[in-house]
Amino acid sequence: MRVGCPKEIKNHEYRVGLTPGSVREYVAHGHEVIVETKAGAGIGADDDTYRAAGARIVSTAKEVFEKADMVVKVKEPQPSEWAQLREGQILYTYLHLAPDPEQTKGLLNSGVTAVAYETVTDERGGLPLLAPMSEVAGRLAIQAGATSLQKANGGRGILLGGVPGVLPAKVSIIGGGVVGLHAAKMAVGLGADVSILDRSIPRLRQLDDIFNGRIHTRFSTIDALEEEVFSADLVIGAVLIPGAAAPKLVTREMLSGMKKGAVIVDVAIDQGGCFETSHATTHSDPTYEVDGVVHYCVANMPGAVPVTSAQALNNATLYYGLQLADRGLKAIAEDRHLRAGLNVHKGRVTNRPVAEALGYDAHAPEAVLNVA
Fold this sequence. Notes:
Elements lengths: L1 E4 L14 H9 L3 E5 L10 H7 L2 E3 L2 H7 L2 E3 L6 H4 L7 E4 L7 H10 L2 E4 L14 H18 L21 E5 L3 H12 L3 E6 L2 H11 L4 E4 L2 H10 L2 E4 L14 H4 L7 E4 L20 E4 L2 E4 L9 H22 L1 H6 L1 H6 E4 L2 E2 L2 H7 L6 H5 L3
Parallel strand pairs: 1-2, 1-4, 2-3, 4-5, 5-6, 7-8, 7-10, 8-9, 10-11, 11-13
Antiparallel strand pairs: 6-14, 12-13, 14-15
């Protein structure tokens, strides 16, 4: 198979779909790899490094989309990219379709077979291709929140960990999954007063054991959520429903009860955000203010640390990418975890949460693949 990797074009996105190390793996499996020139510049990998790994360098993204049987990316295709996709081609990347009707329409019109990193599953019921970026985003959320709390950036002017004789900042994390766990690790490490809310009592028990009393765990009710949000200096939104739009847990009305200069970091913004007042921002203009509360809602947070992120992402995506390259649609048909990742195929939505969020009929992957 001919595998293509274009340069990412989303605002301040420096990651790359294939690192040179991944290129070597695809080539070792007998595949041809084409990479757009300077695709790896953001991680310090120049064209010669890719050539040494076995890739053929092409001068434009157009050549990648025209020649590749499978396109490997990081972020969802932008309008100029989805217009170049075609039927019979596999797209392997993050998609986050539920809050993005325009992209969904573009992919449906193209006829492409689109496998989304964020809905591929594993034997334990986890999301193995989302997990590494959730780990990065959870840790970055605390860095971004701590910076946003500085007075010059619109925040309350509080040091996250405090100093002897002065209380630390209070951090409330909504959601105890991968993002919430890693946000808590960072916040605790910096000395903050940390609470995690979740609706899974087994998960709260697990978190309590992990942190050995260094955080507060709370079952998430409306009362508990309000108490935490109102008392917090920094609130992290870390709620995920696989494939579906994030629930709006913090309403506009709740902002009036928050401290002036408090900070919200909405890590769920890729799925529409879990704060009613959230809208996606970029690394070049990451924050805005609503009712005196600073909102940080960057939709590609891990793009800020591309060397770490690209390596972690490729570590996770390589196995399934090789399966797709080696076996094409048969890999999807025969592997239930890859089938869970199939979101769009030949003009049909094949992921139920996406279909329900956007008003499409949901088609079972098994019914539409028609693999002999």
